[in-house]
Design a protein that fits this description.
heterodimer; A: alpha+beta; Beta Polymerase, domain 2; 2 domains; 5-stranded mixed β-sheet; 3-stranded antiparallel β-sheet; globular; B: alpha/beta; Rossmann fold; 3-stranded parallel β-sheet; 8 helices; 5 strands; about 35% helix
Chain lengths: ~550, ~200
């Protein structure tokens, strides 16, 4: 593949990284799209103050043969400007929003300019009393999230009201951040005409903590427990991509038993997350029984995970080179007993949810998202598969030993409505049980063998500079972690230079900006819940 | 000679107070607000196995109908004003359960000043007449287990009763982990796996 103004070409994490000159940024992205790289995975930046440059990275996939290309460029630190890629890839819009507020890179032609005359901050507060206007916290010399102005909460009001860019002929309704249906503090501003949503502004950032900056202050291994708290429902889903990226930087291999234990924990975690999804969707359309049942059955998988990892929700289980604890001895017995019971419950759950007109009427044919739209906006995971795209990273781009003799099928839907999104999760639970069965069989056959390399000594941090991208098809979509190591800098010798979390929930929620339009008010919340939300991961 | 009558002879309507206390502590309604991880444990505490409805706790979506505000996650600067508004909208007396490290002192996000160093910053900023009837119970953990949340609710009830809850009239509670309690600890997992009696599946 040829690019204009190519400066450098590298390979990391199965990604071809091509660095180009900034003036050819847009043109090269257009070439990338012509080559069939239609799926915009992420766009982010890395600050290099020593070179006086900010590096911008854009990662795109070609789904038909699972190829990945990362386009990179380095812009001047004093003049941070690039053309926006939104005309080519509508799905990078929110990534550009985020890159703007974190690095201050102006993306000329960003859709926000048309409406607001500036790029909006999505995660951080736009109110200068709460966060200084000109501070871009991920620039190394900006001061980050330290030394913020003191706030007198008694005299601060209306910090998050929308004042500009609203259409006068619409009725605006605030939904959230404290709302029982949003499942966490996230807000939407809905512009209604009658019952139909004609304008939608997602309002995020109510749980923004600045974790990417916090990670830069911590040692490599001390990041792992914080990653659990990104998505507390499927916590293993965030540990895996980070540890995989770290292992690549450290050049550490994991043996088969370590891989099996990782797969086991990932699949157990996926099941309980999907159960919660089914329950909360059912609850949102007034079928509370299903919610009570799924919470009951979910507790079982939480307990199994506690047995395996020692923690209920925030596991802190993975380590570079292996896992933290050995396989418990009586795990298989307990699992067999518990899952025999769970399967009966699960059949009842399928009966009561799918044969229930309450659910059917709110799910069938509501909020159809076509495959093209899903790819265009960068959806991933079960939501993408529900739209009929056969893209499961466990199968298409195998990692962590998923391709090593484990047989399972990915679930895909046909229409891409709420019902498909739910059915895909039902099927994935069945497939996960199948995977766990194979993993447990293999673990039992291996017997009392030594555990992974974690008992031997893995290097505590990478010795060489480098970039790695770890990914995991978690319960919510593609969880991706970009880790940049730069040990030559004295401050970053034991700390990551940059960690970027590519959150699927952030992508799904922000894409509602366009996909939510034209829906009925009552269907919108069902649609939003059907995307499987997790606010902490969305806001980071 | 005159003798001044002793006004203190008249006793206050204590039975009514007791009844109010009793009613209040047996129907603590929570604000339905989930911020982060702890909200998942709140949910687990609300349904099967733990089931806080049996001690009269109910989650309501509007702050105007609740007694307890459960702060179950980090409160950042954008959320703070909203959170303060929720405190103001709750009718007094305001009971607050500060669940988890984030709400207590910033928790694992302590390096970032964007997250408040605990919900007390907001409580201190409330007007005097609001602040004086705020009653706080702290619950440590990251996140605390559902049993911990139920314990915190019982602690709050104890606080409302003004002493030992086990001696409270009409209501007695047993905690599984209470010292000296002879009640057997029931492992929900084992109950799930073995207790088939109701389904008639006994071997």
């Amino acid at each position: 593949m040829k690019f204009v103004g190519e400066l450098e070409r590298k390979e990391w994490s199965g990604v071809t990284y091509v660095e180009v000159e900034p003036q050819y940024w847009y043109e090269n992205a257009a070439r990338l799209k012509d080559q069939g790289y239609l799926f915009p995975t992420m766009l982010t930046a890395v600050d290099w103050p020593a070179e006086k440059k900010v590096q911008v990275l854009f990662l795109a996939y070609r789904l038909r043969d699972a190829q990945a290309v990362a386009l990179g460029t380095k812009v001047d630190r004093d003049k941070r400007e690039l053309p926006s890629l939104t005309p080519l890839y509508p799905g990078v819009e929110w990534h550009e929003n985020e890159t703007y507020e974190m690095f201050g890179i102006n993306f000329a032609g960003h859709p926000d300019y048309d409406r607001w005359g500036r790029i909006r901050k999505v995660l951080l507060s736009e109110d200068p009393r709460l966060f200084p206007k000109d501070r871009y916290p991920l620039l190394k010399d900006s001061g980050g999230y330290k030394n913020l102005p003191k706030v007198d909460w008694a005299n601060v009001e209306a910090t998050d009201q929308e004042k500009e860019g609203l259409y006068e002929d619409l009725t605006y309704v605030y939904v959230g951040p404290q709302h029982p249906a949003t499942h966490g503090p996230v807000g939407f501003l809905l512009g209604l005409r009658g019952e139909v949503i004609e304008d939608l502004i997602p309002r995020l950032g109510y749980v923004h903590r600045g974790v990417e900056w916090i990670f830069e202050q911590k040692d490599y291994t001390k990041v792992i427990p914080l990653l659990d708290r990104q998505c507390y429902v499927d916590a293993i889903g965030w540990e895996i991509p980070y540890v995989l990226a770290l292992e690549e930087l450290m050049d550490v291999k994991v043996d088969r038993k370590g891989q099996l234990l990782r797969i086991l924990s990932a699949e157990l975690s996926r099941i309980q997350s999907h159960l919660l999804y089914i329950g909360s969707f059912a609850e949102n359309v007034n079928h509370l029984t299903a919610f009570a049942w799924t919470v009951r059955d979910r507790e079982v998988f939480i307990n199994l995970l506690e047995m395996l990892t020692g923690q209920r929700m925030t596991f802190n289980y993975l380590r570079p080179g292996g896992v933290a604890r050995d396989f418990p001895k009586n795990f298989v017995d307990v699992y067999e007993k518990v899952v025999a019971r769970f399967k009966k419950h699960f059949e009842r759950l399928i009966e009561t949810t799918l044969d229930n007109p309450t659910i059917a009427m709110r799910a069938e044919g509501v909020a159809k998202v076509s495959a093209d739209e899903a790819i265009k906006y960068g959806w991933s995971g079960p939501n993408l598969r529900a739209s009929g795209v056969a893209w499961d990273m466990r199968l298409n781009k195998p990692y962590m030993g998923y391709d090593d003799g484990i047989e399972f099928e990915g679930a895909i839907g046909s229409v891409g409505d709420n019902l498909d999104r739910m059915l895909v999760r039902f099927e994935e639970i069945k497939q996960s049980l199948k995977i766990i069965r194979q993993v447990l069989r293999e673990l039992t056959e291996r017997g009392e063998q030594e555990l992974g390399q974690h008992l031997r000594r893995a290097p505590p941090f990478p010795r060489k500079p480098g970039v790695a991208y770890g990914y995991h098809d978690s319960a919510r979509g593609e969880n991706g972690v970009l880790v940049v190591a730069n040990p030559s800098d004295p401050k970053a010798r034991t700390r990551p230079w940059r960690v970027h979390l590519r959150s699927p929930v952030f992508v799904h929620t922000m894409s509602l900006k366009y996909l939510g339009r034209g829906q009925l008010l009552q269907d919108f919340l069902a649609f939003y819940i059907s995307l499987d939300t997790c606010v902490a991961e969305m806001d980071r | 000679m005159f003798k001044r009558v002793n006004r203190n002879l008249i006793k206050k309507a204590k039975p009514v107070n007791e009844a109010v206390k009793w009613a209040r502590r047996n129907s603590l309604w929570l604000l339905h607000l989930g911020i982060m991880c702890c909200s998942i444990e709140l949910m687990q505490a609300g349904f099967a196995f733990h089931d806080f409805e049996r001690i009269g706790v109910l989650a309501r979506a509007t702050p105007r109908q609740v007694d307890v505000i459960l702060v179950n996650g980090p409160v950042n600067r954008k959320m703070a004003e909203r959170m303060r508004r929720l405190f103001m909208q709750t009718p007094g007396p305001r009971f607050v359960i500060v669940m988890g490290e984030c709400a207590m002192n910033g928790g694992p996000w302590w390096e970032s000043e964007y997250v408040l160093k605990g919900i007390h910053e907001l409580i201190e900023s409330l007007p005097e007449e609001y602040r004086k009837d705020v009653h706080v119970v702290n619950l440590a953990g990251c996140p605390p287990r559902p049993e911990g949340l139920i314990r915190a609710i019982l602690k709050l009830e104890e606080k409302i009763h003004g002493g030992d809850l086990a001696k409270a009239p009409l209501t007695r509670y047993y905690l599984h982990d209470e010292e000296g309690s002879k009640k057997k600890i029931v492992d929900p997992m084992m109950r799930y796996a073995y207790d088939n009696r109701k389904a008639g599946e006994k071997k």
